[in-house]
Amino acid sequence: MKNFCLRVVSHAAFERTIIGLILLNGVILGMETSAEMMANYDYWLLLANNIILAVFVVEAVMKIIAVAPRLNLYFGSGWNLFDFSVVVLSLLPETGEYAMIARLARLLRVMRLISTIPELRLIVATLVRSLPGMMHVIMLMGVIFYIYAIAGFHLFNEHNPELWGSLGISLLTLFRVVTLEDWTDVMYNAMEMNPLSWMYFVSFVIMGTFVVINLFIAVVLNNLDEAKQERLAEMRKPMTKDELAKELRATQEALQRLQNSLERMPS
Fold it and tell me: What confidence tens digit (pLDDT) does each residue in 139-149 have?
């Protein structure tokens, strides 16, 4: 039983099937937002959702059986824990006090696409690794915002209290400016009071948008390179007995397919 489960969950077709079901689940969730679709196909959408959930439950059980009794090989992975938690939460009834949690768990099933595709896992791992470095960039950005918000309050409060009437409102205005959403309207309004006000806004855009965003990108790229190096180091590690057996089975299957192809060829 263990070997059978290991062969199934290790097969590329099984992985592609799970990815396809995750994508299908996402399409179903989108269809359920349409009142017309729910009115006409409510039964079929519910049936498809239950079938997909059943497959996910079977997948989790088979993966656990495949590594038994060394369950740490399954639960020791953060991605496996995420998948297992999503499946467990999806089993909650969609009625009563847990209805909202059950609906949110159905949305999390789409997030399983990240745990299934190695490239997406690498990107998410990079973002998580980047958080400590990003905190320093956020602190720098906070200092810049604070200084410019106080300066903007004193410079433009009397002319336009709607945008600069308090420290909080000034911070919101600067957030609008840093997103480059109609920031020129704010600048031209301030220039009606003082033509040199453009210096304030241009300097803030350069500091807050170009410099800080480039710092964010630099932190992410640096951690992405480190994550790739760690992944390469893990790939160079000696193979375990289970991994070696998996590779041997894959090689045997490839050889068998090649032999079958040669036998079907005309002599």
Answer: 888 888 999 99
Q: How far apart are CA 71 and CA 197, in angstroms?
A: 64
| pLDDT tens-digit series, residues 32-71 | 888 888 888 888 888 888 898 888 888 888 888 887 777 7
Query: What CATH topology corresponds to 2-116?
Result: Four Helix Bundle (Hemerythrin (Met), subunit A) (1.20.120)
- Of 1.10.10.350, 2.40.50.100, 1.10.287.70, 3.40.50.720, the CATH number of 124-227 is 1.10.287.70
pTM: 0.61
